[in-house]
Amino acid sequence: MSGLNIGLIIRELEKRGIKTPQGKDIWSKKSIKTVLGNEKYIGHVLLGKTYTGDFPNNRQFMNDGEHEQFLMKDAHEPIIELKKYEKVQEEMKRRSNIEIVNGAVKRKDTHYSSKRKKQE
Q1: pTM: predicted TM-score of the whole model, two decimal places
Q2: In a domain, 100, yes or no
Q3: Closest among 43, 62, 40 to 51, alpha carbons compared
C-alpha cells in the first residue's frame, strides 16, 4: 500500500536479506503475488485450491473451477487486518492490465511506463 510495484518489493526484500517461503534468496513475481493474495493472512483457509488427477497419473493440478472450493472464515488468528488486505487486492486489480470482457480474458489497451511522453 506504500506504492511499490512488485519489482520494487522484490528489490527491497532481497536488499534486506529476506528469504522466500522456500528459503531461497531470489524472489519471483509469482511468489510476491501469491503472498499478497494469500487469504491465510486474514485468518481464512481456502480448501480445494488444488486437486489430484486420475490414476495412474495422480498429478496435482490448480483448481480453476473444475471442482468446488470451500472458504473457512476465521479459521485462525489473522496477522493482517481485513480492510488492509482488501485494499491491497483492490490495488492489485486496479494495476492489472488484464480484464474479462464477455467472459474472455483480454489485456487492457493501456500502457504503463516510468518514462514521460514527449511534449509535442
Answers
A1: 0.68
A2: yes
A3: 62
Altogether, the residues listed in the chain come to a count of 120
11 and 44 co-located in one domain: no
- Write out pLDDT tens, residues 63-114: 999 999 999 999 999 999 999 999 999 988 888 877 777 877 777 776 555 5
Are 70 and 49 contained in the same domain?
A: yes
Instruction: Give me the number of domains the chain comprises.
Output: 2
Q: Is 102 found in the same domain as 61?
A: yes
Question: Can you tell me the distance from the alpha carbon of 114 to that of 21, in angstroms, rounded to the nearest whole number?
Answer: 30
Reference 11, options 23, 35, 27; nearest CA is: 27
- Give Dmax over CA atoms of the chain in angstroms: 64
And the C-alpha cell for 103? 467472459
